[in-house]
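Q: What structure does this chain adopt?
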Amino acid sequence: MPFVRIDALGTDPGRLDALGQAVQDALVETLGVPPDDRFQVLTGHDGARSTLRHDDYLGVHRDDAVVFVAITMRAGRTPDRKRAVYRRIAELVHERTGTDPGNVFVTVTENAPVDWSFGHGVAQYAPGGEEPAGASS
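A:
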């Protein structure tokens, strides 16, 4: 946990992998996410069968190198930590793919521990009267 979706227009597998690793590294560095806690869906859109739409909202110019990053995670991070993750994602994506930081669009959706099942139909963070897997007292 977190669960990350990354959408980019006209991208190759190497760029998608670099985008995914940049986001994961930013989450590890800024939010303390364990390095092996990586759940991502990386989608490259070809512009014909699927595409992305964007404009220059809030005066931020975007072009066809735009990257949409949607992060779903448990609630509880401070606004400053969220700002730090946005900034670090933009920095690492720029360093690793050359994508202009203005093209890095990030959203965060927060939820509760019971909103996660990592397999076996069990809410591992809130299994109903049992100690959650991986929880420490």
